[in-house]
Design a protein that fits this description.
With 136 residues, the protein is mainly β. The chain is built from one helix and six strands; from the N terminus they run E-E-E-E-H-E-E.
Length: 136
């Protein structure tokens, strides 16, 4: 039995509309990217850092995300990280880490991007624990 854990939860905004394709067997697969903003202070100055995460959703889940989500919408996703490896046209080894979405939740309505609005559902400043109290 393995003690490994691979679980990821992200909240972010879609950077563009999801792209839905189908495998030769007819299984839907949606690809999209989430932008995740992090605010922090250093030397009394507020800073922002943005990270972009590639996500993939399979079957009905991917079809639903493709149908109901658009660029700018806020989405919460839950899943696992997966590393894909392949050889490119020149024979060089390539790899990519992406999030395989297993669950999601709409955080803004269809067609509603909320761009410019602040959602204070959770902020790092609200964290009641300091780094020494977190058990991992």
């Amino acid at each position: 039995m393995s003690n490994d854990l691979n679980r990821v939860i992200l909240i972010g905004r879609l950077t563009k509309d999801p792209e839905l394709r189908y495998t030769p067997a007819g299984t839907g697969v949606a690809n999209f990217s989430l932008a995740n903003n992090r605010s922090y202070s250093t030397g009394g100055e507020k800073k922002e850092d943005v990270s972009y995460f590639d996500c993939i959703a399979w079957s009905k889940l991917g079809e639903i995300i493709n149908e109901h989500c658009k660029k700018g919408q806020k989405l919460a996703v839950d899943g696992r990280l997966q590393q894909r490896r392949w050889d490119d046209q020149d024979g060089k080894k390539q790899s990519k880490i992406e999030m395989v979405v297993e669950n999601f939740q709409f955080l803004s309505g269809k067609g509603e991007s909320d761009v410019g609005k602040v959602d204070k559902a959770f902020s790092g400043d609200d964290n009641p624990f300091n780094d020494e109290e977190i058990p991992f």
